[in-house]
Amino acid sequence: MKNKLKIRRYLEQFDSIENQTFIITGANSGLGYSTTKHLASLGAHVVMACRNLDKAELAKNEIKKFYPNAKLSIIHYDQADFKSIDLFVEEVFKSHADFKSIILNAGIYHPKKGLLTKDGYPLTMGTNYIGVYYLLTKLKDKGLLDDKKERSIVFIGSLSWHAIKRSDIKTIMTSSKGSGITVYSRSKTLLGSLAYLLSRHEENDVLWVSQNIKVLLMHPGITSTNIVGSIHSSYPNWFSKLAQKALNMFVHHPDKASLGIVKLALAKHVDENKIMVPRGLFQISGYPKTKKYPSNLKRMNQTLINISKDVINHK
User: What's residue 238's pLDDT?
Assistant: First the structure.
């Protein structure tokens, strides 16, 4: 109860965002669900972009119990399927082109070995990085990343970022070699590096973002989400349940972890040279604070964007 009251008070710093539209991928659980709930409580119209429509409907109904007047819409979105992304972007362009922010939350962790996306990419990399890159190219094709409307793109990163050599980019983008945790870390490192590159707003022929659109990045620390128990998880059911109980006991709840996302999405003045992280010890948990971009995310150059285009075009 005490934590809920603190979170409620934290949200009171933000003005009403009634009649503003926010798109959240993976909105039916974990960080996505909590962010949806917070934004809805402030009056926003939230578009829940979800792979499983039944679970999305359940999540929507649950939020309605807290906030009966919540404005929520659901669109099918599978980040591991280019056709699904294409249809999603068409729907956004047709019905929600005025969105204030898109929050790139959807992702997968430690799936069974050998699983692929609908388009033949290793599932972790194909979902966590390639799917996001493809989504952004399609939004740009529709003029939604280079128009005059002020909006933001919020990337959700990970505490597991590490250094990647530029010479290794293509190999790790198309290979599932390595442990599940290693592959996950690589996918999130590339995602964080992409966020940094786009936040520079350097024009190129492949993918760039207008100065009017803020490109922002956060990581939630370690959070008690259900990511270890997804349908694709390589962990046995008993381990997933045990891990979930341990997470619930020792790390922060998604309701707190998602406050960093809310702050980035709603801040009137935000520094694209910094990222949002938990303020606790080792950035594991806590309320949001800003820090400088990690140096390992700043090492990439235009090579990352060009290779990403090449990997998609030659699949």
Answer: 47
